[in-house]
Amino acid sequence: MGQQLREGLLRCANGQPLSQELQQRLLRECERMQLSHKQFAQLESELLAQLPQPVAQRVQQLMALRGIGYAGAARLVLEFFWRDFDNRRQVGSCLGLVPQPYNSGESVTDQGISKQGNRRVRALMIEIGWMWLRYQPGSEIAQWFARRTAANAHNKRGKRIAIVAVARRLAIALWRFLTEGVLPAGAELKKA
Known about the structure:
Layout: H1 2-7, H2 20-50, H3 53-63, H4 70-79, H5 88-95, E1 99-104, E2 107-113, H6 119-135, H7 140-150, H8 156-180
Antiparallel strand pairs: 1-2
Helix pairs in contact: 3-4, 4-6, 5-8, 6-8, 7-8
């Protein structure tokens, strides 16, 4: 955009050229944005270098998957995958993405997910779940979501419910990927 501003190619909505003052202001904003991106990249590389070697390796391992970036991988490793889990149920329970049944006498109902555990990581897993659907459409998890929501494609509530299941399945798959080296079914690695 900075190049287009310098060459005077950007125009107002009505087709008029930008005023000189607006053009200069936008150029300064572009320069600030470039500087902040450069500083952010430098901070990311410094942070990764400061992490203990096993933690940095896990972050790099998660970042190798398409759809998972540095911020998500670092937060997952630092706030969630530092624990040792014995099985997939423990992974889902620690995230709070497991069903909360209510059984009393003859009454048996499902109260939704338990929402126990770290809510920031739970929200992050749901966000990563959406990104997974976008960047890993050939994966088994994404195809499960597509089959599950295909009947009611316009049902937003159904998709929001199904993404919670995607987040739980994805957390379990990522745990297996980190501990056993098993790539999630159908998942792709980033190109080098």
